Structure formats: structure tokens, C-alpha cells
Structures
1.
Amino acid sequence: MRDLQFEQMEMAPEKGLSEDGGVSADGIDRRGFLKCMAWAGTGLVWTFAAGVPTSRAFGEGARGGGKSDFSFVQISDSHIGFNKPANTDVTATLQKALTKIDGAAQTPDFLIHTGDLTHSSKASEFDTLGQLVNRRQVFYVPGEHDTSVDDGKMYLERYGKGTKGNGWYSFDHKGVHFVGLNNVVQLEGMGKLGQPQIDWLKDDLRAVRSSTPVVVFAHIPLWAVYPEWGWGTSDSEQAFGALKRFGSVTVLNGHIHQVMQKVEGNVTFHTAMSTAFPQPAPGAAPSPGPMKVAAEKLESVLGITDVNFVAQRRELAVVDATLAQENAEKRVLGL
């Protein structure tokens, strides 16, 4: 077993928590080391030994004239209906995120929203979100704010068509298998998938070739970011048992409103910024929750994630961009 070392950067404007620790890999051989960094308001920096760090402007094509086979964009935690000091106009910041996506040089094939579409599960909030995304292809999973009032009934009425159980599903797109999971219905301090969903996941993956890249997305992180705050999923290890045979697994989550990454064996974990408001870095405050920053800095702590897939080179590039910046850092994953 290899020990992968991870570290977290200081998060602005609050002082972050710096910690070094060992993360046990799952035994799958992969050369390299891990640097896991919380986003500090100036983009994402991620380096691993098997690759070379590169960067580009958000939405720009790859260097050397190359072009990805397709791209999609992750947005998260729009919290429509929230109107407290941390952001009194979450509709406007979501609209700015969508405008940024629309202005990309390469039009994404679709969007993935990793939960907390609304703040209070109200019909009017879901209506507003629908008006904003308007005619875009979006794949959703719920956050706890979308299910806490009515156990997700309204969410499922609007977005659950064709899904299983409490809203889990999968689809294939241009050689990549996508799986949307719900880990917010059975909350027990941390997120939980539940045995029926895990059994469905195992059945779903049986028909997928091990050489196929897999993208899994859910609201609460599927790795233990900070269990003291409930930032993790209690039964995720059972789910990842079914994913070990795949050469490339990318996991996209929201909930914590900041970028963090981890690599364990064949799995790369990524959490996204919110389009609504930031939260403190793990342990940097007594508890999680909306964090107020100076008005002129708000857009520098909100953002989106752009993912590009190149089939021939078997690379998946993940780019985080804030609403304020023109440039972003890109990390390239070998598949």
C-alpha cells in the first residue's frame, strides 16, 4: 500500500487549515504523488508526477491546435432563494456563471448540476432555476436543500423522470459512462447512499467495460473531506468497491463550496465552487455555513468547472474558473 500525501492551501479571506496526512491508496498501481489543495481565490493548481502542469484560459482549446472530443461544465450549489449577507442576489451570480459558460470558445455538450439547486425546496425557487438554465441540457442530482422539506418529492417531480429510487441514474456519452447518485436523503451526520442504491450501482456497472472512463457525480463529497462537519459519505467505500476495476474514475461533488482534489489509485475526486456563496475551509471556523466576503471579492470565490475529454489521447482535463477571472488552471488526467 502506498501513502499519498495531501496538503491544503490557505483559503482567502479566512485563514485555512494546513495539514499533512497519509491517504491509503486502494492498491491499484499508479505512479505519482498527490497534492490536494483548497482553492484560494486565484484558480486551481494541481500537480502529479505522471503529468505536466499546464494552464489555459477558460473555454480555450488545447495548446498546439488540439481540440477535445467533447466538454461539459459542472455547476453546483446555486441555492436559488438564498438572500442573506453572504450573497443577496444568488440569481445574478448564477446568471453570470451561465453567461460565462455561453461565452466559452467550445460549446459544452451539457451541464451537470451537483445539487442544492434551491435553498428551501420551494416551487418558486425551482421555477426561477428553470427559467435561468432555459433550453440548456442539464443533468441534475439533488442536494439536501432540495430534499429537506418534502423528502425530495418536488425535486423528483421536476427532475426525476427516468431515474431510479430517489433519483439515481446513468447515461453514456461519446465513450464515457456517467453515473448520478443521491447521497442526501438518508443523512446521518454525513451523506449516505443506502444499500438499494449501492446494489443498483453494482448492477449498472456490470455492463460497462473496464477500459471505459467513468464519471460519478453526487452532491456531498464521496470521500472524507472533513467528517466533523459531515463533509463525506459514510458508505462510499462500498460503492467504490464496484469501481476498482475501471482504469479511470472521476468523481464530481459540490456541497462544500470550494475546490478540493484527491487522487486515490484509479479515482480522482473533485469538489466544485458554488455559484452562490463560499464556505470556510475545513476547521477554519467553528462550523460550516455561508461566509461573507467583501462585495468586490465575491465573484472571486464563486465559479464553475469545465471538463474536456480527448478520446485519442485518453485525457480528461478539469478546469476551474471563478466568475471574476479570465484565466484558470487546468489539470490533465491520464485515462
2.
Amino acid sequence: MPTAAMLEGALARYNKGLIYTEHLMETIRPPAEKKRVTAAVRTKKVVAADLAVSTRTPATAKKAAPSPTKKAMPSPIKKAAPAARQKKSAVKKDAATPEVRRNRRSDSTIQSILAATEEIILLSGAERVSILDVCVEAKISRGTFYRYFSSQDDLLDAFSRHKRDRFHATLAEATGQYDDPDERFQAVIQFIDDYLESSRARRLLVVAPDYAMRWFQRIFHDSVIRFQDVLSIVFDAWEARLGVSLDRELMCELMVRYILSDVLVPAGPDRRNMPRRIERLMAMLLSGRVARR
């Protein structure tokens, strides 16, 4: 009785002879006949392969079957390949969209541009700010300017944010060192007095009224929130003394509006009494028990 190995050898010799015979017949067949015969040969090969698989012994089939352990544990190199491809794609993406790396030199250049923008606005107004004038005032090239700002509107928007952030940072620096509630409140009053004394907001209102009004509106809500944060320990002490819950937002809003009113309508020689007036305003609110509703 023939064994499985003998059957496989016979099938291999059969296929080899079949291929050789078909190769000789190709030289005398017309093109249409070649296509039909080629399809038939492929069918015979598939049948022969199926027959070879069906005649394998259990031992041969066991050797040919893939190991389930190897299939469940793929190679670490295959795992690392997608990560490597992702890393390459990320590098390509970064190369396509370069970003300006911020460093001390970049920050210094931006500060110079914003300072030059303020000088030009205070001189001729926000509507007449030109990129060329800013470059001349900041002593930079137009290429350097466009490295940080895309347009004139982008510059004015950055300038507004710069002035707002600077106001809030100066407030925090002037009051953060005082932990005593009374000293903190006096530091806030002194900050307001110094700001109104040295602020250029009044000049901005004269040369660029539309821009100034938009800037006041933009910083108003943020300023109310910042004053609440700075005066939090003061309000805590007042509430403990009076036994009430104060409307902190309303009190800070009135304080900010008081500052803006002095910018719009200067107090003149009577400005020296500004700290005292703010204290009286707060005392009046406390005596009326401005409670939160």
C-alpha cells in the first residue's frame, strides 16, 4: 500500500511533467486557446494541492500547523514598527508646520515690538498703526515681525492681551506680599492710586477712543475677578467681624468702575484724596451690609 510520502512524490512528478508538457504546447496553440488551457492548468494545480493536503498523515499535519503560542506572542520588533512609523509621520508633520520656539531672545523681541506698538498708538492712534512704523520703532526687519505676528489685527490683539496681563501681574506683585487683611487692603488702595497717577490709559483714550473703550470692556470682567482673588483674605476678615456674607463680586465691580470713572473724568487736584475716597466707599458698603442675595 503506498504511503503518504509516496503519494506526495508522485503528485510532484505529475505536476512537473504537466508544466513541461504545457510549455511545449504553447508554441503551437493560438492566443485564444492559450488562455483557455492556462485556466484549466491552474484548476488542475489547485485540485492537486487539495489532494496533497488531504493525504497528509497526522504527524505531518501537526508539523505544518502554526504554533498557537507563537501566534499569541508576536515579535517585539513587529510591535515597534507602528510606533516607528508614527514617529516618522510626526517628524514630517512638524517639518511641514514649523513653530517658533520661545526663548529669552524671542520674548525680548516680542516685548520690543509691543513697546513700539504702544508708542505709536499713543502718538497717532490705533487706526494709523502700520507694520513698517512698528518695525522701524522696534529696530527689526519685516521678516522678524512676521515671525511673531501674522497681521496688524494680530498685533493689536496681542497688545491688548499684553496690557491686560501686565495690569493683573502688577496688581499681584504689589499686594501678594501682605498676608494681613488690613495691610492687603491698604496695598490695593495704594496700587490703585499709583496706577491712576502713572497710567497712560487717559492718553490712550484721547488718541484712540474707540480702541480704548474696547480695551476697557475687554479687561473689565477679568479685573473684577482678579480683585476678588486679591481681596479674598480681606473679605474673609470683614465677614468674620460683621457676621455677614458679603457680595464680593459687587464690591469689586464698584471698585473697578470707580477706577475707570477717574480715567474718564479725572479728579484733578483732589486726586490726592483718592485713597481716602476708596476707603470711604468700602466703609459705606460695609455699613449698608452689602449681603449676597
3.
Amino acid sequence: MTFKNNQCPVCGRTFTDDDDIVVCPECGTPHHRDCWQQLGHCANRARHGDYQWENTAPAEEDGENRSRTDDDKKKGRRVADLFFEENDAEYNARMGNWTCRTCGRENPPEAEFCENCGASRPFASRFRMAAGVVDPDAVPPNILIDGIPAEEEAQYIGPGATRYLFKFLDMEKRDSRLSWNWGAALLGPLWCFYRKLYSVGFLYLVATVVVSLICLPSGLVRHMADGYREVLRAAQSQDLDAVNEATRKMVEGVSEDMLTRSLWQEILSNAFSIGGTVLFGIFGNYLYKRKIKKSILTIRTQASDMQTYLYLLARKGRVNFILPAIFAFFYLYTMVAGFMPT
């Protein structure tokens, strides 16, 4: 049996005729030997029981009608390449079908129950009911993203899964890490905490604190603040000569070094703010996509059955409302406190 053009469930790379492949004796899932040894067991261990791996690779054609070019194979293109082919409707329809585990009947993607025996759709239905966000007509549940079925990623993502799945598929189609995310761009660390990208969010906060310390009020700001206080005191005494004298001292006390330092602090602060917004907007989806793959592969090593696997996907994935809310509260509190009179 050939496994050519299928994907390794661990690394997501496409199998070739030259690969050293290990097949799970339980379900028949093929792996690269190195990937099997790295993981220590079958990537689909949590699905063992009534699950059997099936060859879903499209048949190769000769000449100009080949669905993949040699360059695509070398780059390890994913199934997403075929998903976006406008003229490959037959393949897309086949990817969306599901097989009944009771009678073996192949059913269309829109069927929630087997058309032959009436058994409920087993795996994808549970994902859609749990995540509540995946439209099987839009994103075939068994299409692979980084070697992981879309339905599993949807269970991990939770709210907004369809939007993210299309973003990830488009990134794989373009073989690119670039993809715009407005939430990441505008909310920065809040978005990171919401999507449980804790390490990225805390690194961003650390960088913000460092830049803030560098850009603490300079000598110019302190000098002008002290000067304004003297002018106000003079004004309260209704002594015009004292007001003029305080104003003259404030203006004459401004040095060129003060102006230069204040200018560079302003440039650094604005550059960090704008640069952080742009970078998070461009690479937010890539960071999230990479975290999802890493987390799911780790969960597969921890789950011993399907029920535990589904639970861990939802438990370790989904979103966190509490941490962003706490962060937003303290941020708004400090902003308001800064404007309150002392």
C-alpha cells in the first residue's frame, strides 16, 4: 500500500515514496519513523477503538492536470492547497463526506444522521455541537491544517473558529506567515490573554514597561511642570511682575539638551506603539496557529480516550475572559487616577 500524498499527523508534511514510514498496528495511521519515535505512540491514540485510518490522498494525474506540482511537493504543501482549487469540486465534495461507523455508509456533509441506518454523525457532530462555530459546508471537518483535522482545531479554538480556520487555510495556501488580525492589532496583550497566548502577552507587557521606563518624564517635562506651578502661585497673589518673572525663568530654563531628549523619547514611544500594533496585526494569526498545533500535539500524548481528548481540547483551548477583564480594569483605573486631582 502506498501512502504517497497523505500527510503525517505529527509534522503535517506530505509523504513521498522515499520516506521511512511506520504504520500504527491499531488503526493503520502512517507516520514518519522519526515522528513516531518523537511522539512515542500513534498520533490518533485517543481515537482508537472504532477508528480506522483511510487513504484520502487524491489520485495522481499525468501532465498538466496534476493537482500538485513538483515544487509544491518539495515545499510540503498541505491539503489546503487542494481545498482552494476552484476546479477541484469533486475532491472538495469527497473531503466533506463522512462514513457511518455503524454500517459503513458514506453520507453527504450536510447529513447529521446516517441515511442508511439512522446512526448519528459521530466525530464531527460532537465538535460542532461543542464548539458551535463550524459550518461543514464551508470548512470540511476532516481537512488538515498543519496535519491536524479542522474539527479538532475548531474544538480547541471555540468562538470564532470558522474565521480562524479560513485564515489558517489561506496562510497554508500562500505558504506564508503573514495574515492580518484586527483583534491582535488593536488589543495587543488583551487579545493574547483572551486567546491564551500568555507568554506572548506577558512579553509584550514587559517590553511596554521597559519602554515606559525609558520614556519617563524628561527634564523638560519636569522643568515645565515646576515652572507652571510657580506661575500659578504668582497669579494667585495677583502680582503681575511676579507672574512675568516666573514665566521668564520657565522659558529661559529650557535647554537644547532637554528638547532633544524629549523629542527622542516621543519618537521611541510612538514607534513602539505603532510598531507593536502592526506586528501583532500581521503575525497574530501565525502565533495563534503555531500555539494551536503545539498544544493539540501535547494533548494527544495526555489523552487516553476520546472523551478525555475532547475535554482537554476544550479545557486547554477556547478563550479566557477573566485575565483580560482584570488587566483592562487596572489599566482603566490607572488612566482615570492619573487625571484625578491630588
